Structures are given as C-alpha cells and as structure tokens.
C-alpha cells in the first residue's frame, strides 16, 4: 500500500537540507541559562518538577474578557471615551447639590447607553469564546501508559505528553518530532495557517528516535528536553535532548508548530514541548492594530469643539450669574429679597460671588451637557454592526464556486470604505487566481501551443493589428476556446497543439529533444504522486502550482510520473521508437533545490542505461549563461519565444540538461556530501558553490510558458474603480515584463498611456554589481534612481497640458529600495501620485508595507490594501483598510484583514455601493446628531438667559434626560441603516459619485458647521416664537396663564417635532421603517407625556397632568406648536430647494437623472458621466490606432 | 449561522446542494431593497408645499388675529402711582406698616363680556430662579404627616424651631397686593374660586393640610395665610406656587362675573403691599376677557400671517425662477474631481 511504500523512503538522503544537522556550538551553550531554562520530561507529564514549572495546559483563550474581568475591563474601555467620561463625571456630580436635575435622571441614560455597548461587547466576546471551546475540544491521540494511546481533548494536553497526529490533522501544540511513518522520521507539514505558504515543508526528527514507529515503543520511552523558553520566533528553536544517555541537538527542523497541518505522512509521534499560550503561534499572534476611521477621528474633534462651545457658554453664563448674584445684596440691602440673599448657600451667596460663579460653572456644564449627544457612540456602533450585516449578507458579493460570502471582520471601518483614494493591490491570487496553466512551450526552437487567454488577448489588442503571428488572434482564440470547451478541462493544463499532443510528437523533427523535454518535465521536481486506486488516475501534490502544472503537462504529453520510490522515480513513458508505453525507472541521486537567489532547480538522475543526467530548469536570466557552447543550438529561437511569452504575461522557465560521466558525478557527490555534512555557518554557501559548479555546460531543450490566470471580471472592476477616480497601485513580486502585461490585461495600463519606467538594469550598474563593491553600487543606484525620478517628473510636467495622455509609473524592487529612502521618498511619492497607475514589481513584503505607509502618510488620504497571501499581511495591517481575498493561499491575509471578500471584482460593489452608502449614512447621521442636540441644548441656554443664569432647566428632569434616548435617536439610527441617496444600480452607473467620499464632501467642516448653525437657528426660532406667543396673556379660555411647566412642555413638543421632521426632510430613501420611527418618536412623545403626567405628583412633579389638563384642551397649544414647527423648518426647506435645484452636488444630480429617467439632454448626461476613463477610452483607442 | 437559515430556505429549493451553503439568504431587508419612497424636491413639490403652507397659515392667522383683537384688555401700571409723592425711600415705605391703600380708576373703553379675568403682572421677578424654584416641599403641601420634610425649603424651613407650613421661598414670598373693584359705588365681587388648576387643588395641595407657623420668621415675606383654611382652598397660594416661566408674568387674581360696559369707570381700591421696589420691578393690574385662544396677543396671528405671506411669496418666486430657468441643474463641471477626469 502507499503507506508502506512511503515508510521505506529515506528522503533525507537526496535533499540538501541546510540545517538538518545541528551542532552544539554557538547558541546551544546557552541552554540552561537565562531564557533557555525550559525543561521537558518527555512521557512523564506527571513528573514533579514538570508539574510545577510548566503547569499551563493546552487550552487557549482568544476572548477579550473573562467572567471576572468583563465588568471592570469593559467599563474602563467605555469611559476612555472622552464623552462617556464626561457623562460619568456629570452623573456623579448629579448626586451633589450642584445638579440642576435629579441624579437618577442623569444616570439612567448613561446606564442605558453604556449597558447597550457592553451587551454588544459581551455578545462579540461570547462568539470568540465559542470558537475557543471548539478549538480546545478538538481530539488528539495521546499516550497514556504502556503504549496505549487514547483520544483526548486538545486542552488536556500537558507538556511532556507523547501524541500521535495522523494525516491531515492539525498539530495541537508545539511538538518535538520523534518519528513518523517514514523510516527516517521525515514528515511533510503545511504551514498555511502560519505564513500562508501552500507549499509543503519537510521536517525531520532525530535519527536516534526515528525507530519509535509503533505505539508500543513508547511504553518505556524517556527523554529530557532542555530548550529555549517560549517565544514568538517562528523560525528559530534551540534545544537539546537527552535520550538514552546521549545528548542530541535540536533545531527548528524537529519542531512542529501548532496550527500547522500534517500532510503526505500517515502519522507522526511527537512530544509536547510548548502548550497553549506558550506555543509559538499563539505567542506570535498580536492583536491586530485597532483601526479607527477618519470620520470617527473627526467626530472626536467635533466633540472637542462642542466641549469648547459648552465651556464657553458655561463660562459666559457664570460671569453673568456672578454679576447678578453679586447685585442681590448691596450694603445689606436685599435686591431680590424673595431669594433671601442674606441667608444663602454657597451656590447663590452674593457675599462670595466668585465662589458662587465657580460652582455655577459646574452646574452649567452639567446642564449644557445636552449639547453632547450621549447616545452618539452607541448609535453609531449599532448602525455599524447592521451595516456589516448588510455587507456580509450581500448576495452580489457571494462567491458561489468557493461558497464564500463577503465578511466584514470589523465594523469600525465601514464608512472608510467610502473614502478610499488609493488601492494597493497584490497581484498573484488577488488580480489573478493563483492557478497556473501550462499553456505554451518552445521545444528545440519550435513554438508549440496556441492557447490564448485574456492576458495575451489584451496584449494583442495593445499591439493593434501588428500581431506577431500575423492572423486574427481574436477569432482564433475563440475557436480554441470552443475546442477546449468541448474537451474535459484539466486543471493546470490549457495546451492545444495537434503537433505534439496525443503522441504525435514522434513525427516532429528533433524527436530526441522533445522526448528529453517531456522527460525533464516528468522528473525534475519535488512533487509527490497520489494514485487513485480505483481509476488509476494520478494526481500530484507539489510545492508550488507551477510545478504541479509541469508534472500534469508531462502526464498529458504521455510521460506519466506515477511513483516516487525511495531513491527513484517511476514513469510511464511513450517510447518514440516503438510507440508503446513503457515503464521507466530513474534513480534519483540528488536534488538541488530551488531558491530565490539560485532561481533554478536541478535533479541528478541515473536512467536505466546507467547514464547520469543533470536535469535543470530555471529562469531565463541565469539559464542562458550556463549553456554549453554546443548546447546553444536553439538559443536564438528560444530566446525569441521566451521574450514573446513574457510579453504575453506568461511565466517562463528554461529547460536544459547535461549528461554527466561517472567520474564527474563521483567527484561532485563527494564534494556535495562533504558540504552537506559540514557544520558551519557558510554551509549553505558551500552547497551553493558546489551546485553552481555542476550546473554548467547545459544543453538547451526549450522553454515553458505557464499562465497565471486573471480572475473573473478584474479588468471591468479596475475600469470602474478608475472611473470612480480611485488610484490603483499594484505591488507585485513578479518581474517587470509580467507585471506590465498583467497591467495591460487588467486595464490598469491603457493604450496611449505614457509609461515611466524606473529600473536599475542598466549596464553601468550591472557592471558595478559584478565588481561587488556594495558602496559603489548603492551610490550609483541612488543616483540613477534620483535621475530617473526627476526625469519622470519632467515628463509629467510636459504632459500636464494634454489631458488625454495619462502616465503610468513602473518601478522595480531594487530601485524601490532607494526610492523609499528618506531623502528621496517624497520626490518619488510626488511623482507616483500624479500618475494614473503605479506598478511596483519585484517588491518584497516589507517594501509593500513601506510603500503603503508612504502613501498613507504622504498623501494623508485613505488607502486600501488588498491581498491574499501571508506576504501581504504587513501591507494589510499598514493600510487604513485591509481587504483580504479569501482565496487559495491560506487564511493569514484574511485573518489580518478588516474585510474579507472572495474575489477581486467584489471590491467594486464593496467600495462603490457599500462604501459610498456607509460613508454617506454615517456622516449624515453624525451631522444630524449634532444638529438635534444643539437644537435641544441651545433652547436650554436661551432659557437660562431669562432665568438669570441660575441653572434652572426649562424642562422637567426626565424629559431632559430621555430626549437623547427615546424621542430623537431612533429615526437617526434608521437613517444610518437605511438611507440611500441613490440606488445600488446608480452607484455603479455613476462611479464618480464615489468621489464624494474621497473629497469628503459630506463631512467637511463646512457641512458640519452648517448643520450646527441650522441647529442654533432652529433653537432660536423655537425659543422665541414659543415665548413670544405664550408669554403673558391667558393660555386658554379659562383665563389661566402659562407657567414654566406649560411653556416647557410646549417648547419640548416643538423640539421633538422639529428634529423629527427635519430628519424626514433629510432622508432621501423613505421606507416604512423610517416612517414608523419618525412618526413613532413623535407619537411616543405624546404618549410619554400623557403617561408621565398620570404618574403620582411626587414623581412627575410639575408635569403632573399637564398634558391632559392644560395642553390638550387648549387650542393655543396646538396652534403654537403647528406654527413653530412649520416655520422652523422653512429656512432649511427653502435652502434645500434652491440648493437641490440650482447647486446640486453630485448625488443630487444623479437623483435628478433618476427622477427624470428619460432625460432628454444627452449633453448633460455626458457631463455627469465620465468619458475619458477605462474601457470606453480603451475601445476608442483601439478603433483609431495611433 | 447563515447556513442554518439557508437550510430553512433550502427545503423549498429543489437543489439539495444548496442546503449547506453559506449563500446569504435573500431578503429585501438584507439586500437593502426595501420598497421606499424617494422624495425629491421637484419644482412642483416645492411650490405646492409653499402654497399649501400659505393656504393653511393665512386663515389660521386671520382667525387668531380676530380672536386676539376681540379680547378687551385693560392694563394699569401702578407701582409708582401708589407711592405717595413725598416718599423718597420706596423700599422703606413698602416695608413699613403704614397704610398703603391706593385708589385708582380704570376706564372701560369697550364692552367687556363676563367673565372678566383679573390679573396682576410682575416684572423683573425671577420666579424661575433655581434657588427659588427648588425652595418648596411638595410632600409637605400634599400630606399632613409630611409636615417636617422641609429640607429643600431653607432658609424658610423652620421658624422658632418648628416647621413652617407651607415652607420655602415661593410660599414665603406670596404676592400680597389686594384689589377691590367698584363700579360707581357698587362693589364688583371678585370670584377667587377656580382660578387654579384642578389637579393642583386635588392632588398637590392637601385638603387636610393647614398653614402653620407661616410668616413667623424674622423677616416677613409676602402674604399671610388664613390658618383655618386648608391649602387646597388657598387658591392664591396655589396659583403663585405654579412658578412662572419668565421674569415677566401674569397671574390670575380672580374673576369678575358681570359684564362691564363701554364707558364704565371702575374704581379700584388696592393695598399696595408687595415689595417690588427693591428690585425695581413693575406691577400692573390687568382686566381682560378671553377668546378661544386665550388672552390678547397679536403676535401669533401676525406671525401666522407673515409666514403664510412669506410662503406665498416664496412660492411665487420659485415659480418665476423655474419658469425663467426651466432646466438648470447646476453645472457639474464645477465639481473639483470632474475638472480633470483623466489626469489625476
């Protein structure tokens, strides 16, 4: 069986492990010292010392609070907000005599508001708790006694336990690999959850323990591990193990990290080293940086501004109060004798007017506290949660193939989505699907394969009619698509060429080369075959999708790799001579692995005729120089093809081989094993040198082209985003040509765009690099980059006049290093932000994050980073908004993102529809909040003017405190949840609408202050009209006059009506919910007044029966209310009518267009809709090639 | 979470594959497609709104103005006239125990239909001062057994060691000018019953609570109370204790329940006791009839008419503007981001 087969493998022999053998030198001397004091007694979990030292169990907790800490901690969080703290202080002060109102009425709204927020926190934490419970209760098989393994929950694991982990299970803790199903204790690990890399990593246990392959072996197993203390470094581990009186060194090679997965290995045995929160992955998990939206930051500033107004009002009031109070008693004569100023308390004492004024200031601060909307934070939070639900539930952002809806992981940033100025996008997996398809190849100088995909089509479109192949690519491509569609699609293979398919290659010239080419594809890799026993089909598990594409291609060409033996590879091959399928076995001698500096990978195999071959595949840049003089037969042609492929945005590799004679190999093998067994820092360097020597004098076979497929709808989406005026930067690790081609195919680069390319591949620098003088290189490079940037800036200035030609900036990673230096980065940014598109190629994850930071801090605008891999994590966390693509490359990006979507194209809807709506909703909501509170608070202040600033509120205590909670906040929440200026369809039809958010039109200081002004005006109108019309005369036909109670209730009625109707005027999307809430608030006010008035007089005080007895029967109450409400709204209404008609802002223009569907004025429509952007531009450019 | 809800929908769905999908369930709410009215301020809507307001406001304004005009009101300011001309220190005079009777006469210029309400009007009197407003004990007023709860009433809480009923500054400063009216020589009775709110009489002022120890403290405030009448029947006190909203206020004194004819002269004998002189407040005596809208105040009627007229004018102005510029939807090119569409 396959398990048995694998068990016999001793893979370690053929791999060039760099750190396979560890020594006791260096770090290891520290064991037992500070920071290296961890001691684990394997298989003795109950050992005494162990029990004391490493008592932590394996449960993890990701919750923010525990039952005990929930109250203090969440309360603390709440009162860190300045407004809440203010309300806490005033609430506490309300218990003193200073308070203008009763304490309960002041505290209750605060309790409601804080309570609501805490409930929300609690629910969120409960969800995390459930997740934890799930993880902590996963099952794992653990050694009890006498070789018996039992299943237990993860959380019960202890340090020192021996566990058995089976195939495709997660490791429950950080384990020391003891043995595996393979004889040499090798196992494959997938670390997707840690670093997002999909390729399998190989770990190997110590030879000493490799034989412990059965359960019973652990009956008497004892070992002591001394190692470093728990830390967050994923890539280092220092320790030693004492086993059978021998001391062995341990390294990361033996450490299996929690949350990685066992692959391709039936089982492993491991000893638990770190548990729970000591594990490296948990130590490594930092809380994602909490991001706050710009609007919220601005809102804080508005609140501070309001505090200033509040203090000013209180201050002015106190001065007046002090003067008036001082006047009350002069030379022993009482002025306002009815206040008994001669026998007063400190608060009103004319003898100490300064102290009285000071205390009054506190009272006034409490009274005018109604300026600050207490329920603002909680309302915004509620609204944001609902908005996130809308995003999560959006059916148009659900990806059916992967069964993934969009997921807003934080609701903090909803409105920020509407303000994105720059998108920084990863390429692989984000714009493309990260699935590789073998699409073309060039063998012996002949190009095969006519599969044409989006990337290429776009390129030909760009080149216009001067197509390289000279015929109509479009129609050909369609033909091919048809023929491909007819066949069953093979994942990773999209090749069509009758000349070499179905065994026809035997009739081609250079059969031997073709045969070698296919053979190389089938043999030169590290993939592992999996044979489906029922059907006999072979599938492969490879380190990278490219590699899988090669093996699959080989299989399709008739060279099926089906078995990896201990040191051999078995294939079914089509013999060109006999034309039959034969079985061949290659003896695998060495694997010279791929790395980014070598850019190539080789295997050394011995075939059945005992000939030794070195098979090598690698990047064109390094392969051509390694060819032998007699191996350059097809060089020119191949080069041409490779160039063509690269231009088409395909990933190319050069394939070459070399035959070694036995002597040569023996020589190499000696050197190689010597290097491998060398224990020193430059071991790697040595291995590289040895490999370098052998990988020479190669004979060229050909080249392959693999397509990185674009995701669906990417070009259209980028078009739309560009129309919306969002700048898109692509940060990719790919090489420049590929990046440019992808840029064209996803309409980031357009026909007629002037490209500014900054690179360092000029001969002078290459020459310097050969010399290796680092200082000189840096200096020359810096100068070169500076020169190129200033040249670019000059071009930019020259192009400024002509509007049609936009510029694109392309920069490579090497140049980026210098461009991001402090003295140059502003210049670079200056240039970059004025270009329509920016592509950074060959950039490292760190550079991605640095560029993001540069854009964010340099422009001060909102940036959005989108990516799918672990290499994008830095970028996602650095940007204002991180959007993760929940695609193939693991969950790391998603886990550190703020919002996860399944496909790049959903970004369009996320930004243009949800972003715009959320931005609009939140900003109008906040403006409105301030409006309604100023309207209310300012009437209080005006009343003070007429109450000699004594701090007597115009309204009853409870009315005062419930205003924010009941009578005005629900319609605002409805506004925040439901309002739509224009429908989703129009949002997408008029992408420019998005600029309202980018330019922050709806939350500019002008707009905020206008709303506040509106509030002041409303308050003035309400106050003066009410007092004027009710001041002296009889209130009703019974001749009774209106007291404080009646005037207060009438004014309050007017305020409730006005703020709610104002809301109705502001809303542009009236669903029944808003209708209910707006009218509900008003009706509720009357009901409340009625009910409150019916309560016993000691509770309702001066509101007792005021509605039923005084207000309702009196016509003047109704007539005054009606008058005041309507006339308060008229100024705003008139302003709105004029503005809407004659100075509409963009969304209002769109509203007009929607209103007048078949608008007759095409010129007007054109003016509103952009015309020089995106697809239209591209098409028109195509129609008239320059 | 979402899958379970989708499963519910899946039962009606023929494709069983959908059962375990995370596909969001379609609802008009979650897809934000609730049916809605999308009001837009079209010319027609704006003009009709303004017209409607003016059409409603003008008649109301006319009615209110007529009602106000129909009310006959006699206002007589007396605080300086009722001080003998030889008195220089008015405060000392008002605080002295001299006889402060004062006679004035009012001319009825228009027929006044009964009931005629008698008010006193004070000016510059801050009944809405926080110290003043709070200085009362509702418990004590309501409940006989709560006699001692006077904590809020300081400094008018106790006198001679015993609680004052009713305590507090409001009660203590009770207005104590009195008026008696004569037409010719005939006394016009002033009915002082039913001048307060019923809820006050029945629920806030106890029927079994009698004034006690009132105006016994060192400084005398305003009126004294008859200790044999329960608080619920002391309507002057009840009216006074409903504090006014603004520093200028009228309070009901009583009702004259006979018509006064045009040309009548009403002689008023008034006891000018109340000290408004120390804070230079005016005192006025007011006789007024009422309409359905209450007393005489032209403000409301005029305001209605003004706003109604303004709206009519606005409607007219908008009509003209719309007529002159029928299709002027603003100039989108002024939008800053539209100016330079390709260039960035």
From TrEMBL, chain A:
It is an enzyme of class 7 (translocase). Coiled coil: none annotated. Its cofactor is Mg(2+). InterPro entries: ATPase_P-typ_cyto_dom_N, ATPase_P-typ_P_site, ATPase_P-typ_TM_dom_sf, ATPase_P-typ_transduc_dom_A_sf, HAD-like_sf, HAD_sf, P-type_ATPase_IV, P-type_ATPase_N. GO terms for molecular function: ATP binding; ATPase-coupled intramembrane lipid transporter activity; magnesium ion binding. ATP binds at residues 426-428, 547, 594, 617, 651, 732-734, 842, 848, 871-872. This is Phospholipid-transporting ATPase.
UniProtKB/TrEMBL annotation, chain B:
Residues 1-11 have a biased composition (Low complexity). Residues 1-28, 136-157 are annotated as: Disordered. The chain crosses the membrane at residues 45-67, 302-324. The keyword Transmembrane applies. It is found in: Membrane. Keywords: Membrane, Transmembrane, Transmembrane helix. Residues 136-147 have a biased composition (Basic and acidic residues). It comes from the Eukaryota. InterPro entries: CDC50/LEM3_fam. GO terms for cellular component: membrane. It is a multi-pass membrane protein. Its main location: membrane. Belongs to the CDC50/LEM3 family. This is ALA-interacting subunit. It comes from Flemingia macrophylla.
């Amino acid at each position: 069986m396959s398990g048995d087969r694998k068990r016999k493998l001793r893979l370690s022999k053929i791999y060039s492990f760099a750190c396979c053998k560890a020594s006791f030198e260096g770090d290891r001397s520290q064991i037992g010292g500070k920071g290296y004091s961890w001691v684990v007694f394997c298989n003795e979990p109950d050992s005494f010392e162990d029990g004391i030292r490493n008592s932590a169990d394996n449960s993890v907790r990701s919750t923010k609070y525990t039952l005990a800490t929930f109250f203090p901690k969440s309360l603390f969080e709440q009162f860190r907000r300045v407004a809440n703290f203010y309300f806490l202080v005033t609430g506490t002060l309300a218990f003193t005599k200073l308070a203008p109102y009763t304490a309960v009425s002041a505290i209750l709204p605060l309790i409601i508001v804080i309570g609501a927020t805490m409930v929300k926190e609690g629910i969120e934490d409960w969800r995390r708790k459930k997740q934890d419970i799930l993880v902590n209760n996963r099952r794992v098989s653990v050694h009890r006694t006498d070789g018996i393994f039992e299943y237990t929950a993860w959380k019960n694991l202890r340090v020192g336990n021996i566990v058995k982990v089976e195939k495709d299970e997660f490791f429950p803790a950080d384990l020391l690999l003891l043995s595996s199903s393979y004889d040499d204790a090798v196992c494959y690990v997938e670390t997707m959850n840690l670093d997002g890399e999909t390729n399998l990593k190989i770990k190997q246990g110590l030879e000493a323990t490799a034989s412990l392959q059965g359960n019973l072996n652990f009956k008497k197993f004892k070992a002591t591990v001394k190692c470093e203390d728990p830390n967050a470094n994923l890539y280092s581990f220092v320790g030693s193990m004492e086993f059978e009186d021998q001391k062995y060194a341990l390294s990361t090679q033996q450490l299996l990290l929690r949350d990685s997965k066992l692959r391709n290995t039936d089982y492993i045995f491991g000893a638990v080293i770190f548990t729970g929160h000591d594990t490296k992955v948990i130590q490594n998990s930092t809380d994602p940086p909490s991001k706050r939206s710009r609007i919220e930051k601005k809102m804080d500033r508005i609140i501070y501004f309001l505090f200033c107004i509040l203090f000013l009002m209180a201050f002015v009031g106190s001065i007046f109060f002090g003067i008036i109070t001082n006047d009350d008693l002069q030379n022993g004569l009482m002025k306002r004798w009815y206040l008994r100023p001669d026998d007063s308390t400190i608060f009103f004492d004319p003898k100490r007017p300064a102290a009285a004024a000071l205390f009054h200031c506190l009272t006034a601060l409490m009274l005018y506290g109604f300026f600050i909307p207490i329920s603002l934070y909680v309302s915004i939070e509620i609204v944001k949660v609902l908005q996130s639900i809308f995003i999560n539930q959006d059916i148009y952002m659900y990806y059916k193939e992967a069964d993934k809806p969009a997921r807003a992981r934080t609701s903090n940033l909803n409105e920020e989505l509407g303000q994105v100025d720059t998108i920084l996008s990863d390429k692989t997996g984000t714009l493309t699907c990260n699935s590789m398809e073998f699409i073309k190849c060039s063998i012996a100088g002949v190009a095969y394969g006519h599969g044409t995909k989006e990337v290429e089509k776009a390129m030909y479109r760009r080149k216009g009619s001067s197509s390289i192949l000279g015929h109509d690519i479009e129609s050909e491509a369609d033909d091919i698509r048809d023929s491909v569609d007819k066949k069953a699609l093979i994942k990773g293979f999209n090749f069509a060429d009758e000349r070499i398919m179905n065994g026809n290659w035997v009739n081609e010239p250079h059969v031997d080369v073709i045969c070698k080419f296919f053979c190389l594809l089938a043999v030169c890799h590290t993939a592992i075959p999996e044979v489906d026993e029922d059907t006999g089909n072979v599938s492969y598990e490879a380190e990278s999708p490219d590699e899988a594409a090669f093996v699959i291609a080989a299989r399709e060409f008739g060279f099926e790799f089906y078995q990896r033996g201990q040191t051999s590879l078995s294939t079914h091959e089509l013999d060109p001579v006999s034309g039959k399928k034969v079985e061949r076995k290659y003896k695998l001698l060495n694997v010279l692995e791929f790395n980014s500096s070598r850019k190539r990978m080789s295997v050394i195999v011995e075939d059945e005729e005992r000939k030794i071959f070195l098979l090598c595949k690698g990047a064109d840049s390094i392969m051509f120089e390694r060819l032998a003089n007699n191996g350059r037969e097809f060089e020119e042609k191949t080069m041409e093809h490779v160039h063509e492929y690269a231009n088409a945005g395909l990933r190319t590799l050069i394939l070459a081989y070399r035959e070694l004679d036995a002597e040569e190999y023996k020589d190499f093998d000696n050197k190689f094993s010597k290097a491998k067994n060398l224990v020193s820092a430059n071991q790697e360097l040595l291995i590289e040198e040895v490999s370098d020597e052998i990988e020479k004098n190669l004979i060229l076979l050909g080249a392959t082209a693999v397509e990185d497929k674009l995701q669906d709808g990417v070009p259209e989406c980028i078009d739309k985003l560009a129309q919306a005026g969002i700048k898109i930067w692509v940060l990719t690790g790919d090489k420049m040509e590929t990046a440019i081609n992808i840029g064209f195919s996803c309409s980031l680069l357009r026909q007629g765009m002037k490209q500014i390319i900054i690179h360092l591949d000029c001969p002078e620098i290459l020459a310097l690099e050969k010399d290796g003088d680092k200082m000189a290189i840096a200096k020359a490079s810096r100068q070169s980059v500076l020169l190129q940037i200033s040249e670019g800036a000059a071009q930019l200035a020259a192009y400024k006049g002509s509007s049609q030609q936009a510029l694109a900036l392309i920069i490579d990673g090497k140049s980026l290093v210098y461009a991001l230096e402090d003295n140059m980065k502003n210049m670079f940014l200056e240039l970059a932000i004025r270009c329509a598109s920016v592509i950074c190629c060959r950039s490292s994850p760190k550079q991605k994050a640095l560029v993001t930071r540069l854009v964010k801090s340099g422009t001060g605008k909102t940036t959005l980073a989108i990516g799918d891999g672990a290499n994008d994590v830095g970028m996602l966390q650095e940007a204002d908004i991180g959007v993760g693509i929940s695609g193939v490359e693991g969950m790391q990006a998603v886990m550190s993102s703020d919002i996860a979507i399944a496909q790049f194209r959903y970004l369009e809807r996320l930004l243009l529809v949800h972003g715009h709506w959320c931005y609009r909703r939140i900003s109008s909501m906040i403006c409105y909040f301030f409006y309604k509170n100023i309207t209310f608070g300012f009437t209080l202040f005006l009343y003070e003017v007429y109450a000699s600033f004594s701090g007597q509120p115009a309204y009853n205590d409870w009315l005062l405190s419930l205003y924010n909670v009941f009578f005005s906040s629900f319609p605002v929440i409805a506004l925040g949840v439901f309002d739509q200026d224009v429908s989703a369809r129009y949002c997408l039809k008029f992408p420019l609408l998005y600029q309202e958010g980018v330019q922050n039109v709806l939350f500019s200081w002008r707009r905020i202050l206008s709303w506040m002004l509106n509030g002041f005006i409303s308050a003035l109108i309400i106050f003066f009209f009410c007092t004027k019309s009710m001041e002296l005369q009889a209130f009703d036909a019974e001749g009774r006059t209106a007291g404080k109670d009646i005037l207060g209730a009438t004014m309050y009625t007017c305020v409730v009506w006005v703020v709610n109707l104002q809301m109705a005027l502001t809303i542009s999307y009236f669903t029944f919910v808003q209708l209910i809430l707006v009218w509900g608030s008003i009706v509720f006010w009357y009901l409340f007044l009625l009910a409150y008035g019916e309560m016993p007089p000691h509770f309702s005080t001066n509101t007792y029966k005021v509605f039923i007895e005084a207000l309702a029967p009196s016509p003047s109450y109704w007539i005054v209310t009606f008058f005041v409400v309507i006339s308060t709204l008229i100024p705003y209404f008139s302003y709105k009518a004029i503005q809407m008609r004659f100075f509409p802002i963009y969304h209002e223009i769109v509203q007009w267009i929607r209103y007048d569907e078949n608008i007759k004025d095409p010129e007007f429509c054109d003016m509103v809709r952009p015309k020089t952007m995106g697809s239209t531009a591209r098409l028109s450019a195509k129609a008239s090639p320059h | 979470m979402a899958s379970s809800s989708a499963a519910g929908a899946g039962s009606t769905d023929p494709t069983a594959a959908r059962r375990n999908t995370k596909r969001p369930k379609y609802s008009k709410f979650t897809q934000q497609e609730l049916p809605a009215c999308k009001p837009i301020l079209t010319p027609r809507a704006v003009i009709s709104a303004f017209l409607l307001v003016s059409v409603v406001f003008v008649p109301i304004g006319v009615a209110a103005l007529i009602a106000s005009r129909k009310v006959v009101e006699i206002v007589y300011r007396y605080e300086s006239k009722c001080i003998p001309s030889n008195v220089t220190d008015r405060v000392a005079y008002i605080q002295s125990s001299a006889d402060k009777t004062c006679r004035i006469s009012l001319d009825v210029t228009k027929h006044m239909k009964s009931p005629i309400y008698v008010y006193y009007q004070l000016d510059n009197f801050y009944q809405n001062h926080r110290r003043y407003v709070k200085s009362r004990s509702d418990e004590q007023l309501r409940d006989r057994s709560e006699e001692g709860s006077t904590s809020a009433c300081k400094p008018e809480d106790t006198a001679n060691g015993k609680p004052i009923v009713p305590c507090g500054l409001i009660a203590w400063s009770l207005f104590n000018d009195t008026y008696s009216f004569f037409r010719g020589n005939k006394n016009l009775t002033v009915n002082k019953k039913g001048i307060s709110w019923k809820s006050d009489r029945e629920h806030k002022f106890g029927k079994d609570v009698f004034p006690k120890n009132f105006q016994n403290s060192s400084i005398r405030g305003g009126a004294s109370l008859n200790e044999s009448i329960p608080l619920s029947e002391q309507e002057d006190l009840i009216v006074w204790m409903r504090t006014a909203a603004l520093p200028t206020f009228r309070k009901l004194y009583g009702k004259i329940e006979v018509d006064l004819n045009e040309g009548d002269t009403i002689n008023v004998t008034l006891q000018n006791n109340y000290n408004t002189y120390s804070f230079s407040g005016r005192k006025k005596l007011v006789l007024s009839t009422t309409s359905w809208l209450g007393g005489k105040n032209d403000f409301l009627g005029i305001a209605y008419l003004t706003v109604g007229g303004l709206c009519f004018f606005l409607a007219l102005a908008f009509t003209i503007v719309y007529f002159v510029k029928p299709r002027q939807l603003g100039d989108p090119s002024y939008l800053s981001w539209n100016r330079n569409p390709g260039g960035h």
